[in-house]
Inverse folding.
């Protein structure tokens, strides 16, 4: 009985995950929608701005090479309700970032969640929101 | 026993589905700091609507993300579905195809867009409410309805002193003889009236045709007339409908926003600052948008 429930729960979870790429069609054309990448690195800059905030961080790969990543979030007014602030990151912070990368292989992406040095996790809302201009956007860009 | 398993399985699936951010809505439920939503008042009935009043601070009744219309006007998104195909004239279709939006059915990467807005050109009416609509504050004076918009910190005036909408925006009826005709406007020229005690209708024309209607690149000509209907449902709710009437670009008027419900907020709710900043946009393009699209400026 319990096994059956666990199995059904797993199936349901899997279905929910599979549904994501189909429904997240708000994506900007450059993103590899549905793909997830998790990287650990050191923050070099947190740019709290419109149309999107940018987090720059350095990741050292297995060969000791440093890759400079840049990941965006939505504009500040759309991040504040989820607990993000201008002080969320400081240069030197060790962070673990889960992001949706761009299609062309550059070290660029859209942040889904960020684990901070104190173990706290910031989540970037449910699905990508539109960019607009407040800068430009929450939709669109 | 079998029945119980099925019931529990359905419950489990329902739970997972509810917990899934995707099924909670495209953008998820978002609470503007300090704002209240219908979900906070379940089972409570609102009082009667006040007569001839739209004043107050208004936020979307069903959640802060309800106004985000990434793929175009909420009632007619650019998603390729036949029922959302707009009634373009040949000239209108040509204008639409010349636009390169970053969202919707004809989207391109950010770096390749010709959307005027990311560079901080004015969004104008009606895009202010058909793209990234946010909290609004409406102020009624004896001769005006003034709307303050969060997005890009914009405001506009709707005249309620009985003046007519200019028949020809280039030659307004009230213009002083020999005065120079007004230029076309990003926000058009707006007049409004109460059609009954609970319904305020604003009409606007005289638009600059450089603005887009929405984030999906829908165009409008300088002949566009925008009709906004504000219906005060009860003490706490206001519904907004927007109709686009542009005979040059569309064969018939069409509804872009259909009774979108807003909820009245505390008079002390602060509208967050959200500005378009050209220098920040330039940095975003240089660091992110251009390399993401493989574009070397």
């Amino acid at each position: 009985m319990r096994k059956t429930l666990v199995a059904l729960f797993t199936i349901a979870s899997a279905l929910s995950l599979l549904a994501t790429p189909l429904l997240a069609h708000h994506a900007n054309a450059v993103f590899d929608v549905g793909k997830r990448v998790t990287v650990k690195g050191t923050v070099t800059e947190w740019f709290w701005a419109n149309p999107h905030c940018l987090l720059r961080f350095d990741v050292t790969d297995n060969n000791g090479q440093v890759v400079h990543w840049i990941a965006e979030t939505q504009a500040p007014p759309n991040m504040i309700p989820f607990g993000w602030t201008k002080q969320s990151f400081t240069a030197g912070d060790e962070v673990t970032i889960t992001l949706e990368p761009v299609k062309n292989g550059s070290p660029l992406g859209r942040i889904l969640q960020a684990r901070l040095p104190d173990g706290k996790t910031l989540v970037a809302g449910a699905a990508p929101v539109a960019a607009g201009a407040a800068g430009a956007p929450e939709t669109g860009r | 026993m079998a029945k119980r398993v099925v019931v529990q399985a359905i419950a489990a699936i329902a739970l997972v589905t509810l917990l899934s951010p995707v099924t909670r809505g495209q953008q998820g439920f978002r609470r503007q700091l300090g704002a209240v939503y219908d979900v906070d008042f379940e089972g409570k009935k609102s009082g009667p609507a006040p007569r001839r009043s739209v004043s107050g601070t208004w936020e979307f009744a069903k959640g802060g993300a309800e106004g985000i219309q990434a793929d175009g006007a909420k009632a007619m998104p650019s998603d390729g579905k036949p029922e959302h195909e707009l009634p373009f004239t040949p000239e209108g279709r040509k204008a639409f195809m010349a636009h390169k939006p970053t969202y919707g059915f004809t989207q391109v990467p950010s770096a390749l867009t010709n959307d005027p807005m990311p560079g901080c050109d004015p969004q104008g009416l009606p895009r202010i409410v058909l793209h990234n609509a946010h909290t609004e504050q409406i102020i009624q004076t004896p001769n005006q309805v003034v709307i303050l918009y969060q997005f890009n910190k914009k405001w506009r005036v709707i005249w309620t002193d009985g003046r007519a909408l200019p028949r020809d925006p280039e030659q307004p009826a009230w213009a002083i003889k020999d005065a120079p005709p007004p230029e076309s406007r990003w926000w058009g020229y707006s007049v409004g009236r109460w059609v009954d005690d609970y319904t305020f209708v604003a009409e606007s024309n005289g638009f600059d045709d450089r603005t887009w209607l929405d984030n999906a690149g829908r165009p409008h000509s300088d002949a566009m007339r925008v009709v906004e209907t504000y219906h005060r449902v009860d003490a706490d709710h206001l519904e907004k409908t927007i109709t686009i009437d542009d005979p040059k670009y569309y064969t018939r008027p069409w509804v872009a926003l259909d009774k979108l419900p807003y909820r009245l907020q505390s008079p002390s709710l602060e509208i967050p600052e959200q500005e378009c900043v050209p220098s920040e946009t330039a940095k975003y393009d240089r660091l992110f948008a251009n390399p993401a699209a493989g574009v070397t400026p």
